[in-house]
Amino acid sequence: MSDDALATDVMIVGGGPIGMTLAIDLDALGIRCVIANTETDTRWHPKGATQNARTMEHYRRLGISRQLRSLGLPQDFPLDVGYFTRLTGWELARLSLPSEREKMEVVANAGPVDQVPEPLLRCNQMYSEAFFLRHIQTLDRVDVRFGWQCLDFAEHKDGVTAEIEDVNTGRRQTVRALYLVGCDGGRGLTRRKLGVRYGGESSGSEYHYLDGRMVSTYVNAPGFLRRIPHRLCWQYWTVNTDVRCMSMVLDGSDDVTFGTMLRGPEDQIDEGRIARAFLAAYGSDIELKFYDHRPWTAGHALVADSFGAGRVLLCGDAAHLFTPTGGFGLNTGVDDAINLGWKLAASVQGWGGADLLASYEVERRAIALRNTAAGRQFVHSIGATPISAAINEDSPAGEAARRKAGDYLSGFGEEFASLGVQLGARYDGSPIISGDGTSPPPDDLAVYTPSATPGGRAPHLWLKDRSSLYDQCDQGFTLLRFRGTSADTRPIEAAARSRGVPLKVVEIDHPEGRDLYQRDLALIRPDLIVAWRGNRLPGDCAALIERCVGGPAA
Question: Looking at beta carbons, which pairs linking 39-44 to residues 24 or more positions away fall under 8 Å?
C-alpha cells in the first residue's frame, strides 16, 4: 500500500451509470466519496436507452432530470417501435409511442393524483453517462478518479482500505473509507474478491435473437431514415427467416446502433458479415461507415447470492445481470443505488442503526429476482415470434404470414411500458418497514396501482402550486400531515431530533391525496418509500424512528 493515503466516507469502484448515480446521491446526502473507474472516459458506444419513470423520479430529486431530457433525440422525434420484413419492405406491426414533447405536455395537464410526474425517457446511455461524468466533476464531495483502477481492497473493523492505480502513470494511492461499494459489473473485482456467485438463468440456445452472444455495432448510414418508406420510428426491427435484428436511432441523425447475433461461442466479429446483415435487414443498398463493434451476451437473468457483507456492498450489474429487454437492468441498478445511498449516509452520519445496511439486501435482492424474471419473460416472447418462409412473398400466403406475425408482435407493448415493473416494487416484510396490517395491491408487471400501504412507493400528488409532492420531500425522512387532522407531530419530531434523524414535516392540503393515502399521517423514507402511516402517532415514537433506521426496535 502507498503512503499518501486518502480518507473518504465511501469508496465506489466502477464509474458506470450506477456508480455515478450513487456518487450524485451521496453528494446530495452530504457524504464524501471517491469514485474510481478504469477507463479514462465514458464509453462513446451506444448501450441501453431507457431511463424509466422511477429512475427519472430519482433524477428529478437529484436536480438533473431536466438536463437529461435535453439529450439524445429531438423533442419531437417519434418514439414508435416498428416491425418490418425489411426496413424498406412491408410493415408488420407498430407500437405508437409519444415523443418527448408529447409526454411532457401530458404531464403539464395531468390531474392531481396522476402517478407519472417523470415519464420514461428514451436517451442512449452514451449521452447520459457523458453528462453524469461532467456533472460529478462539479460536485465538491465527489473525488472523480476516471483512469484509475482498483487493484485490491481489505475490510477492517472500522473501515475499508483500497489501493487504486492510475492506468496511465502507474501511480498508486491508498484510499481509506468507511464503506466500499462495487459498481464494477459482472466481471469486476469486488464480487469476485467477496466470492459471491450468481444464481438464476443464463443465456440460452444461441439460436434466438437476444438470447446468446451478440454484437452491438455503431454505424452511420447516410439516408437511413429518409429512404425508409414508413413513418419514423425510434426502434426498427427486421423480422424474417433470413435475418433477425434491431436498429435503434440515437439522435435523429443517420447514426444508429445495430444488433446482430454471433453464431456460436467461438465465433468472432466479422465486419463483412455484419455489413451483409445490415443490408439484408435494410432491404436495399446503402452506404455504411462503421464506428465500432462491441460483443456482449444477452439472455441473462442472474442475481448474486449476496449483495455484500459487512462494509463492502454490491450494486447494479455486480448484484444482478439482465437481458436488455424492457430496459430493466439499468433501472433496477439505479433503484439499488438510491436505496443504498441513504442507508450509507445514515451509517456514516451516525443515525443509522446496526441493522440498517443489512436491509439493503433484504429489500433489493427480492426486487432483482422479480425484475430479472420479467426481462427473461420478454426474451422468450421474442424467440417465439411466428415467422413463415412466405413472409417475404407478395402473395396471399405472404399476406397471411405477415398478418400472423404482426398480430403477435402487436402484443409486445408492455416491453416498452411495464409501468407495474417501474413503479410497483415493494419491500413488504422488510424489518425497517412498519406495516399496518393492510394488504397491498397484487404485483402486476404491466399495471401500477398506487397504494400507501407501507413498503411501497409513496403515491404521487400534484400540489396546488403544481409542484410535485416529491419536490417537497427532503433528503431525510418526510412526514406528510394531511390538512384537517388534529394529530400533533411534535412527539415524532422530538424523537427524530433525539436520534439525530433528519425529519421534515410537510402540511398537505389535498383532499384527493388524503383519499389516496387513506390516513392522516404518512412517514416517507429518503428513497420515497412509505415507512409508516396512521391517523395518529404511535405511543412510542422513538421506537418507530428506531425501527425505520434499522435500530434495535427492528
Answer: 39/15, 39/146, 39/147, 40/146, 40/147, 40/167, 40/168, 41/133, 41/146, 42/15, 42/126, 42/129, 42/130, 42/132, 42/133, 43/126, 43/129, 44/126, 44/130
Give 288-338 pLDDT, tens digit per residue: 999 999 988 777 789 999 999 899 999 999 999 987 666 788 999 999 999
Nearest to 48 by CA among 102, 147, 121, 135: 121
pLDDT at 241: 87
Report all structural domains of the chain as residue ranges with CATH numbers, in order of start. Answer: 6-70+123-201+302-375 (3.50.50.60), 73-121+213-297+385-412 (3.30.9.10), 426-548 (3.40.30.120)
pLDDT in tens, 26-38: 999 999 999 999 9
> Grid coordinates in use for 522?
404518512
Q: Please give the order of strands across the beta sheet that includes 159-166.
A: 6-7, 172-177, 159-166, 148-156
Place of cell 464506428: 291
For residue range 107-155, list pLDDT tens digits in order.
999 999 999 999 999 999 999 999 999 999 999 999 999 999 999 999 9
Nearest to 493 by CA among 535, 545, 528, 456: 545
